[in-house]
Design goal:
Helices cover about 50% and strands about 15% of the residues. It has about 325 residues and is an alpha/beta fold. The termini are far apart.
Length: about 325
């Protein structure tokens, strides 16, 4: 592809620009704050969100949305989930018939409980469905930007679209697989953030490796359970966008969801936590939305319920961990999905 437009100049959008710059002639990195964009352009570095990663010469930061989109072959949505609809509304007048679209945000829309690909279709119209895909998987921006080997999944309703976009992302350090299950791939990228919040709380309580391993395992069971009810393939959650993303988000240093959970376990209020993390913590809204879905469909999700009580009712992480340990006896295989 000659020209790619990335909507969102945060850490993830910037990291993806470094991947795409290896295969595309022109990579446009759009952000809505002209001052921040000017700083990125001058430094050739996103000092605020992805420091110490130099941008290639064919990456062009801009705050001019119309110019960013003009002639683009592929448009990436990399803004936070709560801002996606607004940004898509802004680009609608300038989209072109042959554009491909790729959602790279992880989350559900709070007001509608829709996945991001559904928001794309809502705003840009059903006619883009066969040119729409989503990207997910275990991929911290800090490592992608530094060209540390990373594997992701690209899912689409149209196998040809998935294959076209897959090729654009293939580099010696970045490998993309395809998957036909767009529902499961998107849900995996959303649900794992809730488990990561819980993992951070366990870390803050000094509960150790045994507890974290158990949490990841039982968290995956919850993800598979809800994924099946909402139309995903349970097997998808054993792949990169499920188990892979779950492991990296629960157990590694760059996870903002894990860090938020850790700070909550230090008895900090949610407002304090979000301010200290300094970036969007998708697991907070995800917990609120998924809790409502679990109640609606009567899906057993005790980890999600525990996170909800901590976030919304002021329960202590220690109390919730004890509550989970004292649940009724069960057969492990009985309720996987």
């Amino acid at each position: 592809m000659d020209k790619v437009c990335i909507l969102g100049a945060g850490s993830w959008g910037t990291a993806l620009s470094t991947v795409l710059a290896q295969n595309c002639s022109q990579v446009i990195l759009w952000g809505e704050n002209p001052r921040e964009i000017q700083d990125i352009r001058a430094r050739r570095e996103n000092k605020r969100y992805l420091p110490d990663v130099k941008l290639a010469e064919n990456i062009e930061p801009t705050s001019d949305l119309r110019d960013a989109l003009k002639g683009a072959d592929l448009v990436l949505g990399v803004v936070p989930s709560h801002a996606m609809r607004s940004v898509l509304e802004q680009i609608k007048p300038w989209i072109e018939p042959n554009m491909y679209y790729l959602n790279c945000a992880k989350g559900l829309e709070l007001s509608t409980v829709k996945r991001m690909s559904e928001v794309f279709l809502d705003v840009l119209g059903p006619e883009i469905k066969n040119r729409l895909a989503v990207l997910s998987g275990p991929s911290h921006a800090e490592e992608v930007g530094r060209k540390i080997p990373t594997l992701v999944t690209i899912a689409s309703y149209n196998p040809k679209t998935a294959a076209v976009i897959q090729k654009v992302f293939m580099t010696p350090q970045f490998r993309a697989y395809t998957n036909p299950d767009i529902v499961g791939v998107e849900l995996g990228g959303t649900l794992k953030n809730i488990v990561a919040l819980a993992a951070g709380m366990l870390f803050g309580l000094n509960y150790g490796d045994n507890a974290e391993a158990a949490l990841i395992t039982r968290g995956l069971a919850e993800m598979m359970r809800m994924g099946k009810i909402l139309g995903g393939d349970p097997h998808t959650f054993s792949g990169l966008s499920g188990l892979g993303d779950l492991v990296v988000t629960c157990g590694r240093q760059f996870s903002r969801n894990r860090r938020a959970g850790y700070l909550l376990a230090q008895n900090k209020k949610l407002d304090q936590v979000l301010e200290e993390v300094g970036m969007v913590v998708e697991g907070v809204n995800a917990t609120r939305i998924v809790y409502q879905l679990a109640q609606k469909y009567q899906i057993e999700m005790p980890i999600c319920e525990a996170c909800h009580r901590v976030l919304e009712e002021g329960a202590s992480p220690q109390e919730e961990a004890l509550r989970l340990m004292q649940r009724e006896c069960k057969d492990e295989t009985q309720d996987l999905y």
